[in-house]
Amino acid sequence: MSSSKLRILVPVKRVIDYAVKPRVKANKTGVETSGVKHSMNPFDELSVEEAVSLRDKRKLPVEDIVAVSAGPAKAVETLRTAMAMGADRSIHVEVAEDKPLEPLGVAKMLKAIAEQEKSNLIFLGKQAIDDDSGQTGQMLAGLLNWPQATQASEVTISGEDVTVEREVDGGTETLKAKLPMIITTDLRLNEPRYASLPNIMKAKKKKVDKKTLQDLGIDSEPRLKTVKVEEPPARQGGGKVEDVDGMISKLKELGAL
Ligand code: AMP
């Protein structure tokens, strides 16, 4: 079957690097972001890899891969990474660092961009590791009235037909739908490539369009107020036992036996 031309949109979020241990701000309203290493949300790296591999490994007719990020000026670095991995161009929606969008605002913004770009496939991360909302893909599918498959571990496309294996508790579920479609990515989907130096250089020449929420007609009023952010309780240190008898009496002492 001849395949439809794929116009893929890949939303990528700039978040605190996964290897950094977040520190809660003194006023407990969030985590410290200044002076902290940031990177692309790891689930979004899977999305970019999947989009690019549909073109270069699976040889599907991919017409366009557009990365989009809403965030402060530095979000452009994340877009450059996406383009160095193989996205064709990108869109930066300027949003102040101290007024980040809630998932509903991001979903409305993505709906407007998807309509402008005539996208027919959108890969989002299953969650952003900073706010752990896990909502944007689902809300976007609702707003666009498109089918969605969340937590994808395998994606197969043939013509208009998309088959997605999803990670579910203790196994996988296989779904079929037709384009246009929303897919959210899970860890087993692929292994994101590293951007090579020549591709990083090439990405500097790729286009980054700037847009504002006003341009897109998006109401970004927050509906939620963060009441408090707290560190988990400090863990108690462990103890050593000499032998099995020692372990049994320790467990009894703790009421575990
Ligand atoms: P969340 O619902 O916040 O956990 O985010 C899920 C996914 O939505 C992320 O993995 C991204 O693909 C996308 N997303 C969320 N926030 C943004 C943003 N500010 N810019 C671009 N994409 C975003």
Distinct helical segment count: 7
List how many beta strands DSSP finds. Answer: 11
Name the structural class: alpha/beta
What is the mean predicted local confidence, pLDDT? 94
- What is the N-to-C order of secondary-structure elements (H for helix, E for strand)? EEEHEHEHEHEEEEHEHH
Radius of gyration: 21 Å
Bound molecules: adenosine monophosphate
CATH 4th-level superfamily: HUPs
The profile of the biggest β sheet is: 9 strands, mixed
Number of domains: 1
Organism: Cyphellophora europaea (strain CBS 101466) (Phialophora europaea)
Cofactor: FAD; AMP
GO molecular function, one term: electron transfer activity
Family: Belongs to the ETF beta-subunit/FixA family.
Structure description:
With 257 residues, this protein is an alpha/beta fold. The chain has a single domain, classed as Rossmann fold (3-Layer(aba) Sandwich). 28% of the residues lie in helices and 27% in strands. It contains 7 helices and 11 strands. Strands 9-8-7-10-6-1-4-5-11 form a 9-stranded mixed beta sheet, with helices on both faces. Strands 2-3 form a two-stranded antiparallel sheet. A hairpin with a 2-residue loop joins strand 8 (161-168) and strand 9. Helix 2 (75-85) crosses helix 5 (197-203) and helix 3 (103-117) crosses helix 4. The radius of gyration is 21 Å and the shape is globular. The mean pLDDT is 94. Bound molecules: adenosine monophosphate (AMP). Adenosine monophosphate is lined by residues 11-13, 41, 43-44, 68-71, 101, 103, 106, 124-125, 127-128, 131, 133-137. Its main location: mitochondrion. Heterodimer of an alpha and a beta subunit. Its cofactor is FAD; AMP. It holds the Pfam family ETF. It is found in: Mitochondrion matrix.
